[in-house]
Write a structure and sequence with these properties.
The chain is of the alpha/beta class and about 150 residues long. The protein is built from four helices and eight strands; from the N terminus they run αβββαβααββββ.
Length: about 150
């Protein structure tokens, strides 16, 4: 009787664990020395935790070809953000003024060759969330959209 109850409790615990894994989504993005993300369109569920694994597959030094992923709120002026980020070298090209910071949903670290970073974030509402690499000059090529439904 006691062992049966234990078995049921373990089963319940495992199904709770399993469903939390199924409900969240994981996306993987890579970047390379030709200023490209491997994929520029992702779809996730609004209000659900997303895990982003970002890898820099390049060989060039970080000072010349660093990459990050910066996720912006829907409607953000992407060129304006990208050009403004150039001045934010001290904070790895993430602007620290309040108005610009308010446009950023989440961001990875700036990665050198062979490095990777994993972050989690939630896109609160349905919409098209642009993402860019904010290293100087990269946003024109390195941008995409995460659609939350
Ligand atoms: Cu980049």
């Amino acid at each position: 009787m006691k062992s049966k109850l234990t078995t049921i409790l373990i089963a319940l615990g495992m199904s709770a664990l399993f469903s939390s894994v199924v409900n969240g989504s994981t996306i993987e993005i890579t970047a390379n020395d030709t200023m490209q993300f491997n994929s520029k369109a992702f779809e996730v569920k609004a209000g659900e935790e997303v895990t982003l694994v970002f890898k820099n597959l390049g060989n060039l030094p970080k000072a010349a070809m660093g990459h990050n992923v910066v996720i912006l709120n829907p409607g953000t002026d992407v060129p304006k953000f990208g050009m403004g980020a150039v001045a934010a070298a001290a904070s790895e090209y993430i602007p620290q003024d309040e108005a610009t910071k308010a446009q950023v949903v989440a961001h990875t670290k700036l990665l050198g060759p062979g490095e990777e970073d994993t972050i989690t974030f939630t896109l609160p509402e349905a919409g098209a969330y642009p993402f860019v690499c904010s290293f100087p000059g990269h946003f024109a090529l390195m941008q995409g959209i995460i659609t939350a439904k």
